[in-house]
TrEMBL record:
This is Major facilitator superfamily (MFS) profile domain-containing protein. Residues 1-44 are annotated as: Disordered. It comes from Artemia franciscana (Brine shrimp). Residues 55-586 form the Major facilitator superfamily (MFS) profile domain. The keyword Transport applies. Residues 12-35 have a biased composition (Basic and acidic residues).
Amino acid sequence: MGKSYTLGETPPHFENKSYDGDSSDDEKSSTKHEETDEPQYVLETPEDKRKRRISLLVVYITAFSFSLGFSIVLTGVFPYLLQLDGSDPTFTEPKVFFGWVVASFPLGQLIASPLAGYVGKRFGTIRIPLFATLFLFTAGMVFYAMLGAIPPPRRYWMLGSRFVTGMAAATVALSLSYASQATTEAERTTGISIVNFSQTIGFMIGPVIQSALTGIGCEGISMGIGDLSFNMYTAAAWIAACLGVLNMIVLLPGIFTEYNIAEKERAMMSKKAKDENRADLSGMKPDYVAVGVCLVTFAIIIFNFIFTETLATPMAIDNFAWTEEEAVAKVGIMLFVGGIISSVCFLFAGPIARKIGERNVMIVCGFIPLIAAGFAYFPYSGPPPVERGNNGSNVTEAPILTTAYSVLTTPWENDTVSMASSHFVSDDTISEVHHDRAYDVPTMLMLYGESQSMPEFFHLKAGGSGGCGGSNETVSPGCPYDEQPWCEFTPAVKVEQFYIGYMFTSIGYPFGIAMVNSLYAKLLGPISQHVWMGFLSASGAFSRVLGPILVSYLYTYGGSQWTFGVLTGLMVINLAILLILYKKLQPKSYIDDGKNVKA
């Protein structure tokens, strides 16, 4: 009996029993069918299905652990960069360079994904390329954790470590291609959605772990080698490296066995079409225009999501005057809550798609919320952000509030704190000396919300060593007017806008990504999808390469209005393309039985 493959519902016209295609067995099967009225065409045994599902479970675990390892360090990359090179006087544009750091990860993914797909197709297995990508992931994370041992400047070495880790992101393409080959046509949307769901769960838990590690502190424990230390940023990288090792273990031959039910289903459908004198469409070529639309749509959805990966932490520091540790912790919690929302959406994506079709789910549940997110983020009116505290005066203005808030006048270690009475006006108004800008308490409430402790937003560091970042200018809360002139006149993004926008993103992103993946796989049909999934992953990686750079430049030189205006505009244009080409995005059934698969 030939090797069989498994997962999910039994396709129409087939019974879950093994089939080897032998002519004598065909005669016996035909005779038995005539005598018992059992279906002639069978796909796999219940035992085969069970084993196939186990193999898919291993791939789901792989997608989860990779995403978890990636997202653990996500919110800490920017402050870690400042810690490594913040004191370097030549490091004048940290956000712009950070855009390149973020872009180096998908650049590695862009190069490695098609290559990994080719290797998987060439050898007929995903185990070999998966081991290679997971080894790169582990090595990249270890290197990232040990950057402090290298003499400065270290930021270029960080670029290298993120590039190597990005090459490991080909794991995603391999996981998706296996989900396509190890599921039947009826199961494919659900199988691919579970891969995306697994990634989302990992992405959700990772930032929470990073937030929990803030207790270690940004200075942590010195390891006695250069500036190497075990701190909140390096601890996350070590955890990620351990996950890479565990991931390789679950892919060992005794645990993971590969199946290809899609190819077997194609062969059976072809035989049935021939036996019934019907047109065999199993060898049909995909509609390349529709496939191209899916690639572009996938890239634009990823580009829209790049904001969170690139700017969430620095934007929180700029607009809300949060400290580094506060931004990492609160953004991490936001990502966790958003991950819960996305997880629920991924779970419902498959069932909803079976009711109304992938195209409708992608447009209504995916694009509409993502466009709404852009409108939610956009700062329409109000005062500009609080200025960063480095104005050359080496003075930190501490607040005195005697109304709704307690008096808080806590100086920082090694810093000079001025309590000059001229800097404060009554209980209702606090005047900042920076650029003669005044902010009253109601305005600050409108900017930052009552949920935050008012004094925190005036902890503007001016003197001393500069803390973990090693530079007063790069680590102080508030918006840097000298680096970003738009800070003086552009309205600040409000905290509630930040949260509401991310809530919409958390709804639209999972539906959009899951449906694009599913449509793409179905449009390709029952062909080997290793290389094609590599192209899909590469399109997302291409967006991740350009996205951080463009978003960083847009934000640094144009401000939040330009950033969210461009992101929203791209989504609107993409939606228009989907509506125009709506009919082309409907995959056809493998067998010409007069019906098309709903999509």
